[in-house]
Amino acid sequence: MSADLKARVLAAAAAEPSPTRAAVNQRNVVISMVAATSIVGALMIFATLASDGQLVRLGGEVAPDRYVERSVWLLLTTAGGALGIVAMALWFALRRGRSMLGRSRGSLLCGIVLIPLALFAWKIGWSLALGDSMVEWPERTGLKCLSLSLLVAFGPLLAFLAMRRSAAVRPALNGAILGSAAGACAWVAGDLWCPVSYVPHVLLGHVLPLFVLAGVGAVLGQTVLSLRSVASTRRTLGEPRTGGQTFRE
């Protein structure tokens, strides 16, 4: 460890208050509940404005006199698999890993790329196997789903940043992986609402938002997770510095 990096880590430890494990767990539970509530609330608002309150849509009119409907089994399979990917994404994004400095640059970059790829492959693979919703829907380019994804992901992204609080090194990449995780949460909401599996639509309306959110997360991570930003914020708030043993989330 370089002298500069060691000094930055020690400065972070000195500047950060020392909450108890119970306090941290309680705080994270509350933040998680707020994030989940924001997802449901954003989906309900969007569905009310865009589809007469339909939170789950199984089909629609593709062309005059042609109606395509996805099966309930397809919906349960794609949404259930997406939930599993979300769980792994959250574990990866919110945990620092074995090192006190967090995950390596390579692993964070892999996560940012693999999360949307895994969601896309799962969605398209099962749609090919179980449904006929792969056909082109000329009236559904994906812009509504893009808007839905960004709206739903806003609350979780802020919640994940609050849970992570700081990153000793690579704050931008840590913010980016949190953005990807928030986008994965929004993917589940989008999969419930949207019956379209046409590849260009999925790329624009479902995959692109994850990369957009990774970019937004990188900017926010550099702004609020870096040690300089954390120390400055706490000096502004007048939080005390503590010494001795500290509990690290």
Question: What do you see in this structure?
Answer:
This protein has 249 residues and is mainly alpha-helical. It has one domain. Helix content is 70%, strand content 4%. It has helices at residues 3-15, 21-51, 72-94, 105-130, 143-164, 171-193, 199-224, 227-237; strands at residues 59-63, 66-69. A two-stranded antiparallel ribbon has the order 1-2. Helix 1 packs parallel to helix 8 (227-237), helix 2 (21-51) crosses helix 6 and helix 5 packs parallel to helix 7. The longest helix is centred in the first third of the chain and has 31 residues, at 21-51. The protein is elongated and about 70 Å long. The two termini are 21 Å apart.
Question: How are the SSEs placed, and which strands pair?
Answer:
Blueprint: H1 3-15, H2 21-51, E1 59-63, E2 66-69, H3 72-94, H4 105-130, H5 143-164, H6 171-193, H7 199-224, H8 227-237
Antiparallel strand pairs: 1-2
Helix pairs in contact: 1-8, 2-5, 2-6, 3-4, 3-6, 4-6, 4-7, 5-6, 5-7, 6-7
